[in-house]
Amino acid sequence: MTTYSFPENFMWGGATAANQLEGAYNEGGKGMNLADVMPGGKVRLGVIGNPGFDFKIDHEKYVYPNHTGIDFYHRYKEDIALFAEMGFKTYRMSIAWSRIFPQGTETEPNEEGLAFYDRVFDELKKYDIEPVVTLSHYEIPLYLITEYGGWRSREVIGFFERYATTLFNRYKNKVKYWLTFNEINGATHIPLLGLGFSPESEETRLQDSFQGLHHQFVASALAVKAAHEIIPESQVGCMLVYAPTYSFDSNPQNIMHALQEQRVFNNYCGDVHVRGAYPAFATRYFKENGISLDIQEGDLETIKDGTVDFISLSYYMSRTEKKEKTPEEVGQGNLIGGVKNPFLEASDWGWEIDPEGLRIALNQLYDRYQVPLFVVENGLGAYDKVEEDGSINDDYRIDYLRSHIAAMGEAIEDGVELMGYTPWGCIDLVSASTGEMSKRYGFIYVDKHDDGSGSFERSKKKSFHWYKNVIDTNGKEL
Q1: 207-211, 278-282, 321-325 — which is least confidently predicted?
Q2: Is 329 noted as a catalytic residue in this protein?
């Protein structure tokens, strides 16, 4: 097996999001957020991506696994100790906006919420684990949705700026690395998660989504500027869900179609965040799709002045495109569309597995932007079986991660500047895409199930010990 050379300061770790593991949804002064009204099995129930979601809780009809998560709110010391045992250098996490500003509109933050994250950061520091903090990870305060329409409203920019500035001032001696909006480019596909609104119709989805993205671009730029002023040594990144787009074949029509999809999905947000301006291809795309942005005076200057320091990305799958496709050709498991790739196998949930695509993604990004890259999500959602002796032999997860780490090693050899790797769901948590516990990603098993039952006890999977050795050897032993 090839031995790879990762940088000495490579940031090995793991990643989670507040709404998927904290629980305690109504404790500590926290307000309601988007995740709190998302039911278990939400994809199956038609909640994700469909117009008309009403943002109400119905306990008689649904279960709400995010309400308890995996109880990290009360068990964070135990979990961070397990992360430290694996040798984590870094931990990518998010802060729940509604723990800090319960409705999102307050002028003063909630001290209980701020104090909770102080305790988390102090616990990480005890083990020399560097936090990487996402400001907004699919959990906009519910009040900003029901009263303002989410990121369709320009007023939310100011609320977000206050929230971000509050965090920078509070944690300026504890957090150096920040990310603004999780998987920002996914918002055009699923505006509910990224932009906090349920589209009124397919006809309005693109107009409202790209307007919402414009507001987020301005908000992100303001946050970058504030972070650099308040924490001079800080580094702020954007966060993209990246899926390199392949043409189904060598038909020039399909190649051009794949290029167009690649630009709009993978490049549009990155260009604005890193280059500080809208890309040239956006003009024609907007014209052909009836999109007209309300760009106010000073917005473009703000975006230009607030470019990010690095790009972070999630990588789960590639995407194969064909201009004319039948329903039978569509890859059912890939949330971002495309057709089935005949050369790839798929996970239990139909997500195509393509480690070479990660090497391609990193090269594409570095060729385009020449800024440092950070893989902050990557992993395999799978059914795990607990054996009679309590062991969990997740060799399938080890194989998946090994092949993707090898792809990163190849990308580094290609000349890509890669900061670190934080595989997703380093401890089992509630799946964002499906609202299930049974779709497990972690090195650490949590005894909680889709119906809410379970002891919440933690146990180590086989992958726990494997990943510990990967970190110990700085990626030399996979």
Answers
A1: 321-325
A2: no
